[in-house]
Task: inverse folding
DNA sequence: TTACTGCTGTGATTTCTGTCACATTGTGAG
DNA sequence: CTCACAATGTGACAGAAATCACAGCAGTAA
């Protein structure tokens, strides 16, 4: 896979550095890319596939924050990288994914030397911050039914298809809810002709 | 007020630019500094007082995100400024406050020229992102009683004193809850000897 | 003082969500 | 086909929080 077409704006010198120093890694669906508490040694740039970023608490609760698709980077890994902190989130490959790992030590230099990199980082911050804001909005102001609709819509947008191939249990985990609640709400949505339910698959209408 | 002592790390050239181009503004407690949907023309740097950053939704619901104290900047205004977007949050002075307004146009240049400014911006991003993460944690994983305790603790930390001079109604607004719920939970906390309740004031023990 | 207003306390009721229990159904391994 | 198991459907119940209703209380202005 030629990653350069994902970042046409990057200038030659920057591309050269990345080619020389960054490592491309493959992850299978389900693989953990970054774990809560782990020390961050590189910034992750998604080239292919889909990566799920979520928060985990001590009692085993999970909470989905957002997805990263091709051309997107993990703001947390950038922030941590720049300050050598440990991760506060989990990153897991939702599909088989290709990720470019850029060593921490390069970040500072790249930020200073390459305007396009600097712009990319700023843009990444803004993007993730905005997504986090809409997550806050949802859990602060919305009930589970609306949050579920938002979840499904976001999923189809990110995955680029109208079907959601996951179980009710997984959705419940992502929303930090319970399977029964999700099943019931989905049934109601089916009665309103918003979705069609199948086994391990939900069709958005 | 001499703002320079708040930012001892800033290099001379940077200080000079800020002195020349930035405008210092005073706000009274309760004044709105930035409003949802407003176009952002400058980055806000708090010199004195306390500024409350919160989210508002269309039905009049509010939700406190965090406070800014002396030496802190609004990450949202930086992000928006750098990309000329409109604000997605509300900023209100909680106490009488002094705020340094740095025009948007200078940001790019300052980021490139002054390493200490660049570091300050990065540090601001990380700080706000972290706070937003802990906000998400709280509403996603905690019940109202724990959220209330967190709220009171954070308030006293930010205000630098053990008393909270606001009404139950205001707390309810900040937590997007209702006055009765907060009153009841506070009563329970009083029975556990965690607080002492007064009119318009709560004493943290 | 009296009257008014805003803050606080508290019970009753309802809604939403989480939890438990168990039935049913789809699917793949053998 | 049959068995095992995972996914889903559903009723009953519990608990947290929102809402409604109203009473008491503190401070303030006249």
Result:
């Amino acid at each position: 896979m030629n990653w350069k077409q994902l970042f046409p704006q990057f200038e030659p010198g920057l591309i050269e550095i990345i080619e020389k120093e960054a490592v491309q890694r493959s992850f299978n669906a389900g693989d953990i890319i970054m774990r809560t508490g782990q020390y961050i040694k590189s910034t992750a740039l998604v080239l292919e596939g889909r990566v799920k970023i979520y928060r985990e608490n001590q009692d085993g609760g999970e909470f989905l924050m957002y997805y990263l698709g091709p051309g997107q980077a993990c703001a947390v890994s950038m922030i941590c990288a720049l300050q050598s902190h440990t991760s506060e989130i989990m990153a897991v490959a939702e599909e088989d994914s290709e990720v470019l790992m850029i060593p921490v030590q390069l970040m500072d230099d790249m930020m200073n030397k390459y305007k396009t990199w600097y712009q990319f980082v700023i843009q990444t911050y803004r993007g993730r911050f905005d997504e986090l804001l809409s997550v806050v909005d949802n859990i602060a102001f919305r009930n589970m039914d609306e949050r579920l609709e938002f979840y499904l819509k976001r999923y189809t947008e990110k995955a680029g298809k109208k079907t959601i191939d996951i179980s009710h249990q997984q959705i419940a985990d992502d929303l930090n809810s319970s399977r029964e609640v999700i099943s019931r709400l989905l049934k109601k949505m089916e009665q309103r002709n918003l979705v069609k339910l199948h086994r391990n698959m939900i069709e958005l209408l």
Remarks:
- Residues 65 and 154 of chain A are 11 Å apart (CA to CA).
